[in-house]
Write a structure and sequence with these properties.
The chain is mainly β. It has a single domain (2-188), classed as Beta Barrel (Porin). The protein has helices at 2-23, 126-129; strands at residues 29-41, 48-63, 66-80, 85-98, 107-121, 136-149, 154-166, 176-188. The chain has an 8-stranded antiparallel β-barrel with strand order 1-2-3-4-5-6-7-8. The protein is elongated.
Length: 191
């Protein structure tokens, strides 16, 4: 766990310092935060349960309809089953976000695709549950949402829906197919 905290800290410092460098090159930089709900399955079939948490994003404008995006999300659930299992999942991904409409439109739908990693902790993580395997895995996200521009610097993300696939060991197919729903806001730091 301590190693993952250091990785998260290093990733955050790298992202923030990158934002400063990019801002100096006249690319719009935005930071966002959200509430996240994940409907997950540990094993195929759907012994499904829900995780709740939050996330932070950094977004760097590459063109009027395109941005690079980095996302770190932490979700948790306690009291899973009668045995009181717990699971905490950390995802760290990066990719692109595309808006099909004009950059100054007030309501803009978007699509995104991101790749990265995921870490799990708790009694249901592979290392703790006896399943074996790493508590770190590949993560893939694909989906979209709606951005509602409230002012030139502040936008609301009333809904974002993503398919989240992770590859944690699970004694079956080592793949989890999750639904991730988020709502949050974005603050533009530079133009």
């Amino acid at each position: 766990m301590a190693g993952n905290v250091w990785k998260l800290g290093a990733l955050t410092v790298l992202a923030m310092s990158s934002a400063v460098v990019v801002a100096q090159n006249n690319h719009a930089v935005s930071l966002g935060a959200d509430y996240t709900y994940v409907r997950t399955n540990v094993l195929p079939g759907c012994s499904c349960f829900s995780l709740s948490g939050g996330g932070a994003q950094i977004q760097v404008s590459l063109a009027p309809h395109l941005a690079g995006i980095g996302d770190v999300t932490l979700t948790h659930k306690a009291g899973i089953t009668a045995d009181n299992y717990t699971l905490t999942q950390l995802t760290y991904t990066g990719g692109v976000r595309v808006w099909p409409f004009a950059p100054r439109a007030r309501l803009r739908p978007f699509a995104e695709i991101m790749l990265g990693g995921a870490s799990s902790f708790g009694t249901l993580s592979p290392a703790s549950s006896g399943v074996g395997g790493a508590s770190n895995a590949f993560a893939f996200e694909s989906g979209g949402g709606i951005e509602l521009r409230l002012s030139p610097r502040i936008s609301l993300l009333p809904v974002e829906a993503d398919y989240l696939m992770t590859t944690f060991s699970n004694t079956a197919n080592n793949r989890q197919n999750d639904l991730r729903l988020s709502a949050g806001f974005v603050i533009r730091l530079s133009r």
